[in-house]
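dumping this here so i dont lose it
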């Protein structure tokens, strides 16, 4: 519970999702050892990261707007140097 409060819901969901993905791509056992297919695990992680990147790029666009000037900044521009 402390790490959920400290790191947030994103860390909780990411940890849960990564465990589910690794468990999904677990292979058969050989000599009592569990084998994992690492390539699809890493491809899933990379694809999820790309989707998050695209979501951030679409959600947080930098719009070029001219900020209104305050009276102080106008007075500073008119002041002789």
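and the seq i came up w/
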């Amino acid at each position: 519970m402390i790490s959920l409060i400290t790191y947030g819901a994103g860390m909780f969901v990411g940890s849960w999702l990564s465990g589910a993905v690794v468990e999904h791509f677990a292979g058969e056992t050989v000599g009592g050892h569990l084998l994992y297919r690492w390539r699809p695990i890493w491809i899933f992680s990379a694809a999820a990261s790309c989707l998050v990147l695209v979501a951030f790029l679409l959600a947080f666009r930098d719009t070029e707007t001219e900020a209104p000037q305050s009276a102080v900044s106008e007075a500073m521009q008119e002041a002789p140097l």
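The radius of gyration is 25 Å.
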